[in-house]
């Protein structure tokens, strides 16, 4: 089992390296925008990008997944995959161009629809161009994955992000382009990525098959509502915060703040959830092929039980450390003049524990998908996703007027908790397993208590937080002592056998 766990860790590192690098580079933009743009402009940026993520699902309409399926079937049957590629590209080219044209034309109305003013239509039009480029990259990226051209895939992604960072820095710092520079930088980055994957288009033919498209739509379209609902769990908050009443904002935060200021502060602080988001995303890349490969193993359920416990405990530790140390890193003044986030954003730091702990339940849900996919019971996935989105939306609408940003963060935690409960119910229904729920719940409760102790004690010194973190590690070793002993025995036997062989 140790070899299999090591294999999962290795796959996680391989599949996620480009993602970590790309997202890490992209994260450089957070302090850049926070320090060089005001909170209002950051709010506009955060709101539009939240809606870009939602619109991306509509622009792609499941074509990535359907192309992988149909093209791989064609390749196995000896068919011409170039015809499948051409059909998919033509379809996305036509639809994305039409969608983009509509957004360009109706930009003032769309700006007002999402909570901005008609005068900010320029940024909506920039978003439309970004969406067009993203749609044009869907099939080339899918093709690179299908043909296992990981290096080219990684280069296109990473170089695109590098171009965004460099362009944003030049336009905002040296040309004072402001918020416009942030959107132009993204367009430049997407253009660079598209240029890098141009060789993929060599297989393009003047061919279009309505039957192939029909098959792709049959596979891909059901992913659209589920994809939107899944994104709403983590993005509906911005769209609710932008609609806060000014009276509520003044009551909670004092005078001088507009809705866009609140969205900007919230968006930049919530971005620090990347610590756990990256860990889960990288884990997800490796987890699906791993559990499908080992589904028939005699010890599969025990293996999956250990993976869930280990990965969830890791998520809890990162959440605790993030809650303790990220605010200190944000408040620290670097080179006696620079903050990661300026003091204007510090009123939003109270959302961090809620954001970090929500990702723990995302990790649990990710693990529990194994039972659903192994048994082919994917009909339950939309139910799980819509339940989470529904709860997040309702709680957000309820708590944001009362608690502001913290209410939005609580709503995200509520949505992820409901998703993990629903996922657990359906997964265990079709694929029973005896997970260590009591131990994990105990660790979660202790972790929450640890995050509150500095507040109760009236001190947030790093030494006190470090002592609590060390104590938490000790509790983990005690609670999961059987699992720790098992892994240590495996390691000991492996080292002994290696020494004997030498």
UniProtKB/TrEMBL annotation:
Keywords in alphabetical order: Cell membrane, Membrane, Transmembrane, Transmembrane helix
Query: Highest taxon of the source?
Result: Bacteria
Per the record, its GO cellular-component terms are: plasma membrane
This protein's major location comes to membrane
The keyword Aminoacyl-tRNA synthetase belongs to this UniProt entry's keyword annotation: no
Q: How does it sit in the membrane?
A: Multi-pass membrane protein
Q: Which Pfam families does the entry link to? A: Polysacc_synt
Q: Can you tell me where the transmembrane regions are? A: 12-34, 46-63, 84-111, 123-142, 154-177, 183-204, 216-236, 265-283, 303-325, 345-368, 380-401, 407-428, 440-456, 462-480
Intracellular or extracellular location(s): Cell membrane
Entry protein name: Polysaccharide biosynthesis protein
Q: What is the lineage of its organism?
A: Bacteria, Pseudomonadati, Chlorobiota, Chlorobiia, Chlorobiales
């Amino acid at each position: 089992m140790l070899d299999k766990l090591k294999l999962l860790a290795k796959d996680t590192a391989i599949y996620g390296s480009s993602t970590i690098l790309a997202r890490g580079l992209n994260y450089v933009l957070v302090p850049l925008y926070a320090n060089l743009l005001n909170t209002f402009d950051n709010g506009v940026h955060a709101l539009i990008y939240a809606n870009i993520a939602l619109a991306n699902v509509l622009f792609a309409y499941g074509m990535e997944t359907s192309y992988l399926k149909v093209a791989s079937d064609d390749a196995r049957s000896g068919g011409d995959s170039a015809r499948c590629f051409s059909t998919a590209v033509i379809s996305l080219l036509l639809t994305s161009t039409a969608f983009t044209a509509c957004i360009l034309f109706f930009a003032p109305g769309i700006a007002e629809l999402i909570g901005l003013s008609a005068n900010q239509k320029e940024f909506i039009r920039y978003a439309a161009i970004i969406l067009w480029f993203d749609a044009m990259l869907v099939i080339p990226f899918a093709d690179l994955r299908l043909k296992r051209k990981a290096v080219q895939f990684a280069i296109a992604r990473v170089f695109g992000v590098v171009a965004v960072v460099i362009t944003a820095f030049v336009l905002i710092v040296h040309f004072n382009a402001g918020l416009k520079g942030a959107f132009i930088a993204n367009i430049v980055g997407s253009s660079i990525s598209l240029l890098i994957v141009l060789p993929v288009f060599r297989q393009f033919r003047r061919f279009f098959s309505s039957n192939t498209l029909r098959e792709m739509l049959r596979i891909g379209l059901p992913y659209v509502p589920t994809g939107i609902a899944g994104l709403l769990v983590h993005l509906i908050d911005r769209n609710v915060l932008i609609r806060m009443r000014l009276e509520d904002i003044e009551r909670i935060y004092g005078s001088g703040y507009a809705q866009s200021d609140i969205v900007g502060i919230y968006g930049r602080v919530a971005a620090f959830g990347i610590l756990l988001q990256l860990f889960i995303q990288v884990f997800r890349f490796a987890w699906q092929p791993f559990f499908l490969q080992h589904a028939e193993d005699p010890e599969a359920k025990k293996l999956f039980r250990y993976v869930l416990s280990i990965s969830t405990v890791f998520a809890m530790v990162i959440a605790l450390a993030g809650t303790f140390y990220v605010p200190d890193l944000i408040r620290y003044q670097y080179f006696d003049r620079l903050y990661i986030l300026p003091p204007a954003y510090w009123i939003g730091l109270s959302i961090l524990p809620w954001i970090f702990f929500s990702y723990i339940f995302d990790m649990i849900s990710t693990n529990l998908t194994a039972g659903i996919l192994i048994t082919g019971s994917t009909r339950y996935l939309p139910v799980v996703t819509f339940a989470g989105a529904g709860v997040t939306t309702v709680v957000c609408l309820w708590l944001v007027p009362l608690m502001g940003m913290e209410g939005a963060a609580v709503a995200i935690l509520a949505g992820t908790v409901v998703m993990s409960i629903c996922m657990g119910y359906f997964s265990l229904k079709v694929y029973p397993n005896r997970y260590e729920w009591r131990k994990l719940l105990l660790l979660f409760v202790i972790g929450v208590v640890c995050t509150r102790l500095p507040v109760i004690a009236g001190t947030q010194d790093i030494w006190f937080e470090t002592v609590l973190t060390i104590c938490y590690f000790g509790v983990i070793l005690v609670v999961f002592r059987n699992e720790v002993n098992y892994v240590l025995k495996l390691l000991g036997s492996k080292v002994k056998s290696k020494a004997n062989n030498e």
